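tool=predict chain=A
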Amino acid sequence: MQVATTNPGPAEVVDDLIGDALPGRRGLGAWRAFIRAHASLMRDLATDLATKTGLTLGDYDVLAQLAKGGGGLRMSELAARAFSSRSGMTRRIDRLVEEGLVSRAGAESDARGVIVALTDAGLERLIDTVPVHLRGVAERFVEPLDDEELGVLERALEKVTVDCTFG
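tool=predict ok
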């Protein structure tokens, strides 16, 4: 008599892999909660910002980084600071130049360097947009947590932040 053997299904295979990689599944719930929170918060904030201001979250970030950088940054520095890949940054800047929100010029000290600067229109747009975005951050992220939870979360996330540059 031949005994039928069953191969494990995909769920069992993945479950075994998880068990091997995370003994006792330590941290799995926290990781999944972080991923869900990040995805839902970013989606909601991006939708809210685009609906109310016409700016994408990526465009907002570029304008904010330029403002924090004193009004202008080298393209390479902007790409390192912004939540965008270097390859996507050039296209984004091209569009923002067309919209009149930023300008682009060659760096005086380096013929290959490019300086991206916030225009007056870009600063006005940022001034109009910051309160809208931060109201969304407050409503969706800050208000549901108490001060102790915010502090614990900040300290925990600082421990696992390896590299803040993108691209």
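The chain has one domain: 29-160. The chain has a mean pLDDT of 90.
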